[in-house]
Each structure stands twice: as C-alpha cells, then as structure tokens.
Amino acid sequence: MTRHLAGSRPSDILGFFCFGGSILSGGVAMASAMTRLGRRGIGSARWSSMAVAGQQSRASHSFTLPDLDYDYGELEPAISGEIMKLHHTKHHQTYITNFVKALEQLEQAEKDGNAEAIVKLQGAINFNGGGHVNHSIFWKNLAPSKSGGGEPPEGKLASAIKDEFGSLEKLIAKMNADGAALQGSGWVWLGLNKDLKQLAVQTTANQVYDGALFPVLDFSKLLKLQDPLASKGLVPLLGIDVWEHAYYLQYKNVKPDYLKNIWKVINWSDVSSRYEANL
Ligand SMILES: [Fe+2]
Known about the structure:
- By secondary structure, the chain is mainly alpha-helical.
- It has one domain (10-277): Iron/manganese superoxide dismutase, C-terminal domain (minor pseudopilin epsh fold, 3-Layer(bab) Sandwich).
- It is built from 11 helices and 3 strands, in the order αααααααββαβααα.
- Strands 2-1-3 form a 3-stranded antiparallel sheet.
- The radius of gyration is 19 Å and the shape is globular.
- 40% of the residues are buried.
- The site of fe (ii) ion has 7 residues, from helix 3.
C-alpha cells in the first residue's frame, strides 16, 4: 500500500503558476514560487535553500513522486492495476525527472546570465512541471469504490453542479463528450472561476499550454500559461487524463469506454474539498 504524503491544494497550484516578471527576474520569481510550493505542496517537493531576489542563490530541486492513497489494483475494474503502476511509476516519474533537470539547467543559466537559455528552458519546465502538477491532482481525484470512489458529491458542490449543468449526469455527459472529442493528448477538467464563482468544463492539450506558440520574449506571459486551467482563469477541481497512456492498455482505442468507467472511481469528496477551499 502506498500512501500519498501531501495533497496539492488549488491554492498551491495558483501560487505556483500565477506570477510574472521581466525576463531577467522571471527565474527568481519562479524560484520563489517553487519554494512556496515546496513548503506546502505537491508531493514531497523540497527545496534545501531559497533563491532570493538580489542575493546569490543556491537551490537544490528535489521533487519526488507522491505516494498514492490506494494500491494500484484497487481502482479495478475501472482502471487496471497495470495501467496505474505504469502511469504512476513511469509516466509521472519521467515528468518529475525532466522537471528537475530543467530547473537545474535554469539555475545554471541564471548564474551565467544566459537569458537565451532561460527562455529556451520554459518549454521543458512548462511541459514537465505541468505534468507533475496535473498528475498530482489526478491521483487525489481518484479513489477505490470501497473508499467512496464514485459516490456522488454532496453539499455545496452538488448544488453548484445542479445550478450550472442541470444535474451531475449532464456534467458527466459533457466532460465525456469533450474528453472524447479532444484531438491528440490532453485533459478534460472541471474548474472553478473564482471571480464569477462559477463551475466550468475545459479541455487542455498535452500537459500544459504550448508556450512555444507565443513570442518567447514575453516571459511573464509564458509563466502565466504554465498551468492549463490558471491560463484560462480556472482553479482545477477535477482533472481526467485522456492521454492514451491513461487507458490504452485496457481500453485500446475505445476512449469513450474509459471515460464512461472512470466515474466509478472519482473521489468527489476530494473535488468538493478543492471547491469549498476556493469559494
Ligand atoms: Fe498521464
């Protein structure tokens, strides 16, 4: 039995992603945000020292794979144990490994005053850091049926779903349709617009927004686009991974069946907690 060490709260995600800065200060801003995240947040992220603006910094990046709250096989038959093990130990781990590598390269580029290298690293940081964030949420969004997985939401979230979508069944139908229609790899999310206090469904491509499509010198803009939902003004509540690696070994090319069955192991209690924490 593996156990998750720390939850990734929406506020941590926003704390991580919603910052900006000039091209020269962006790396320091990132380091500061990472430090906050490491103190509170995703998995067992740790920083051995802080990078502080105006000071010589020495940071050690040690983001590690979060344990799960359940065994790999406990989500069966909705998701096979084989998929869960590969997904967690290989795919998620690879995002973390490459995230740490990119952060170390960023640190060196900052020391060297190499602005070009700093900008080039944003793609790898966005993709792999986003992969770590997204999967850390995803694991918590799931639960075995014996632990409440699949039990409908209650309270404020249940009311909000009814107000926004008409019923839970209609929300599920929308997320399934949007997830099935997503071309290529990506995620389908239930998010919260904090300003409007409104729920919304949103799909995002790959792990994160493709920053390469934007002018690379607009560093602050790239930073704000790291979190797929934050880039759209939404706090992530529930994310469903619709990359092929999440279902192909079991469902082959029938993605709609994966989407139909995953609701049997959705941890609505976790989704509700994220919702109420951001009202
Ligand atoms: Fe994944």
